[in-house]
Amino acid sequence: MPDLVYLSLWLRDFDQQTMLAYWRQALEEFPASPQAPGVRSLAVYPLNWSEAPVAEEAFRDGISPQELLPLAEEFLHADCAYEAQIHWDLWTPKARTPKSEDIFGGWERRPQVVSILCLGTEFDPEGQEVPGHLEIVFGPESNFLPAEEWALTPEEKQQVMAGPQMRENVEKLVNYARQLEQKLPIARRRLWCESGEDLAAQILSFWKVES
Q1: What Cα–Cα distance (Å) separates residue 14 from each residue in 51, 58, 67, 140?
Q2: Which of 1, 48, 113, 135 could be stapled to 117 by a disulfide with Cβ–Cβ 3.0 to 4.6 Å?
Q3: Domain span at residue 64?
């Protein structure tokens, strides 16, 4: 399984009264997919991740962050975590065919799920390194860097990284992070992957994109 990519945000003045408004702001700034618009699901976890959700609902046609907020506010408490799933469009490689002259069988832009989480100040992440107040799960690392399982040669990896599709994916992530920087009172942030590596350093050093 590929490592997942996270953006952790620590906010000033984050408490029970402000946290859902900040969470809604992160949802409103998200570049949602036109093919699968709106928030697609909500889950509210009490106490820690091992507990069953006290609320869990899917929205077949998607709803707006403004419509989502009252549903979450019914379970407002500092020991809860709130997860909303939403989609954005990213380039992904197609499977290579015998007739393919390229590394892959081309690229396609497809909706991919992102989780945007808000963790109350009394929620217990159960041994997890101190989490951010907002945690954004962007999906697999292969959305932004060539995956090891693609088994590419160094030359092929360089070709993929230099291509417009991977660069557009990276720029979408960076632009969203910049939007949040402008809209939220961020005290600290961290872009990372499950292996613990500083993914931001890997991505930004190659692309020379300022975070």
Answers
A1: 23, 27, 22, 28
A2: 135
A3: 4-207
